Amino acid sequence: MNNKKPPFKVKQSNIVYKNNLVTLSSDLVVFDDGLEKEFTKVEMKPGTSILAINDDNEVYLVEEYKHAIESFSVETVSGGIEENETPLETAKRELEEEIGIKASGWIDLGFVDPFTSAINSRNFLFLAKNLTQTKVNPDDSESIKIIKIPLQKAIQMVENSEITHAASCILILRAAEYIN
Questions:
Q1: Which range of residues forms the domain containing residue 27?
Q2: Hey, which bits of the chain come out as E strands?
Q3: Which of 2, 91, 171, 180 has the most CB atoms in a 10 Å sphere around its CB?
Q4: Rounded distance, CA 138 to CA 172, Å?
Q5: Which band of pLDDT confidence, cut at 50, 70 and 90, is reported for residue 6?
Q6: How large is the C-alpha radius of gyration of the chain?
Q7: Dihedrals φ, ψ of 175, to 5°?
Q8: How far apart are CA 76 and CA 168, in angstroms?
Q9: Residues 49 and 25 in one domain
Q10: What three-state secondary structure class fits 175?
Q11: Which of 85, 82, 78, 59 minimizes the C-alpha distance to 124?
Q12: Domain tally for the chain?
């Protein structure tokens, strides 16, 4: 990580809004030259994204309507990390809940910070292998379509902007690099 100090000091910080997923704050900062500036910061619950791949190099994606973008989105399985839960525990739980799959092989492919200018929402990336089908058990508010396609097709979908969820794009490309 970067141990450099920021080029300013926080003079005042106010929480504007907070719920179980998001905290919106406004920070007034002062630079060394005396310039004051306001930064708005969104802290979101950290999450995981999981790409499940079977022995035939087929991956499992989900399609779901996303209110924020007012459109359906094709993505890897993703979900928020609950308190006292590790990223891997979250990944295992989400994979089983959303698409009814358990995996005995887990590969940590790092993390991403999707929107570094204003949003703090780290997302941990996992490749799941050695898959076993179980029962799907999505949250009440989720209406998920499961998609199984060759990994190469998923890569093409990223390249063609058919998959636009940033963590999913990076995970698919990192998984392809890891496998090859």
A1: 8-43
A2: 8-18, 22-31, 36-44, 47-53, 58-66, 71-75, 77-80, 101-112, 119-120, 123-133, 145-150
A3: 171
A4: 23
A5: confident
A6: 19
A7: -65, -40
A8: 5
A9: no
A10: helix
A11: 78
A12: 2
Tell me: do 163 and 93 sit in the same domain.
Answer: yes
Tokens at 36, concatenated: 């004051």
Which pair of structure tokens corresponds to residue 78?
A: 């993703």
Confidence of residue 5 (pLDDT cuts 50, 70, 90): confident
pLDDT score, position 146: 95
Residue 153: its H or E element: helix 151-159
**Residue whose tokens read 């525990």:** 89
Question: In this structure, which amino acid lies at residue 149?
Answer: I
Overall residue count recorded for the chain in this entry: 180
Residue 153 has pLDDT above 80, yes or no: yes
Q: What is the CATH number of the domain that holds 125?
A: 3.90.79.10
Question: How far, in Å, are 4, 11, 111, 179 from residue 169 at the CA level?
Answer: 29, 37, 12, 16
Q: Which two tokens stand for residue 87?
A: 């990223």
pLDDT of the residue at 2: 63
Q: Is residue 167 part of a domain?
A: yes
Q: For residue 33, which phi and psi values (nearest 5 degrees)?
A: -85, 5
157 domain-assigned: yes
The whole-angstrom separation of Cα 101 and Cα 174 is 21
Please, what is the average pLDDT of the chain?
A: 94
On whether both 16 and 98 belong to a single domain, the answer is no
How far is residue 28's CA from residue 10's CA, in Å, rounded to a whole number?
6
